[in-house]
TrEMBL record:
The entry's keywords: Cytoplasm, RNA-binding, Transcription, Transcription antitermination, Transcription regulation, Transcription termination
Lineage: Bacteria, Pseudomonadati, Bacteroidota, Flavobacteriia, Flavobacteriales
Gene Ontology cellular component annotations, sorted alphabetically: cytosol
Protein name: Transcription termination/antitermination protein NusA
GO MF term (any one): RNA binding
GO annotation (BP), single: transcription antitermination
Function comment: Participates in both transcription termination and antitermination.
Subcellular location: Cytoplasm
Quaternary context: Monomer. Binds directly to the core enzyme of the DNA-dependent RNA polymerase and to nascent RNA.
Amino acid sequence: MENIALIESFSEFKDDKLIDRVTLMVILEDVFRNALKKKYGSDDNFDIIINPDKGDMEIWRNRVVVADGEVEDPNSEISLSDARKIEPDFEVGEDVSEEVKLIDLGRRAILALRQNLISKIHEHDNTNLYKQFKDLIGDIYTAEVHHVRPKMVVLMDDDGNEIVLPKDKQIPNDFFKKGENVRGIIENVELKGNKPQIIMSRTSPLFLEKLFEQEIPEVFDGLINVKKVVRIPGEKAKVAVDSYDDRIDPVGACVGMKGARIHGIVRELGNENIDVINYTTNTQLYITRALSPAKVSSVKIDEENKKAEVFLKIEEVSKAIGRNGQNIKLASQLTGYELDVIREGIVEEEDDVELREFTDEIDEWIIEEFEKIGLDTARSIIDQDVQDLVRRTDLEEETILDVIRILKEELEG
């Protein structure tokens, strides 16, 4: 009964660790055989009988009866006198099977056995967990917020598995509360000691690609192919899509009527601005589309150096560059070309002055803010609406007015 009671207490791990009973029994036999080896030197002459259905087990020690005083190996041989204490009619040469009780192993051995079992089950769980989540790398996964820490959010899935969402894998304006569900992709599984650490990401371009698969039926069905995704997480993204069926408008299908289809994805990503463009093998056309919403006049390709000069009218330059240079940066990443914006059709006014000429009066970082939106001369700034400049730059209205005053004094003085 001691064996059965111990098995039943051990089988509690089955529920805690989500390990099936048969696997538990295999681990148990291995653990008991190790205990027998330590006590008797070998487990060769022991039978361990495990019944996975009932959850009980028996350990039998098999020895050969020898004459009294002729026992050479106590583990495999038993004297006739000792054998007859078990059954009185044993004779020399016969096999004796004697049940081993747990108490025979000793208290310390039983405690060590239990620790060994715990270790083996943890090892089994960790191996299975590692394999399970290795197969899920690149897939969208949902888990619940368990702890919010300064450098990470610790999530828990329905099976009680811990998943880590590091700070640098979070969208900048993400805000999490305990108990809410969070979606991301399984980006990696790392072994920390013997324990797997599951890493989730919400900033990966693959997360946006998988959201397209999940939210847009034509992408899921393979009718629309997502060719490439580039992102500045939480700010802006560009997605190039293509269709194998000429009857399908890939951009229209992804965006949906009045943006209905893409709205859920935008909301999931913290209102990230997503440009969806038609992919093409025509490099000039691809670059033109990538710089949307700007209207490109022409493109000059340097194929050898993977560079392109993009010619735009002055009013389109700021759109092409985008806030903080985001639009041109993503267009470059999407197309694989270094893009250089060239303003066209401008007759240089004699009294216009390059903005860099004012470095003695205007701070460098302020000049850079104007250059980010394509304004690099005095008149290009003076001709702009002040409120529009406030909206498109990180500058205060007072700063912009001060810059305009300095520029006007130079041009009109």
